[in-house]
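=== Given protein ===
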Amino acid sequence: MATVVQSAWFEKGMTFAQYLESMKVNRDELTRVYEQLEFTEEDHAFWQELAAKSSKGIVLTADWCGDAALNVPVLQRIAEEANIEWRFLIRDENLELMDQYLTNGTSRAIPIFIFLDEEGHETAVWGPRAPEVQEMITSLRTTLPAADAPDFEEKQKQLYRSFKETITSDPTIWRAVIESVKAKLKG
């Protein structure tokens, strides 16, 4: 676990309200998940326990990202329950920080959620996807034509549009995100 102090990045970030206000893409999807998400009693108990451990965090994101339309509202609702204050940073405006959290050491995949203690030390990192969501997109990608096929680009766009609609409207997928975050924070 890193002990890097991320306080300066936290101070630079937007609040959730500011991030939401700045959004030009996926605001409706993000809002739908945020408003419709429900927690179990077990979830509530876990978030109360978490409230004693983390107090703030940094989210690397971008409003065009379909995964962010799913994960940002889920983790924002968790934060509200667990008394965690997020600050939102746009990935492409903060590459120095983003490059500390590359997926598989190479990809600037987002969103990334960096949990911090009171002093700004990293306590956990989650993102960009729950394992079940990753398995889903990996499986869907196998249905695409070859990358050099004339219809590849259009088929890929259709696939991602459909994927975003599914992940932002299916509560069972939201539950997978909740369970993945809980597993990360328990570990």
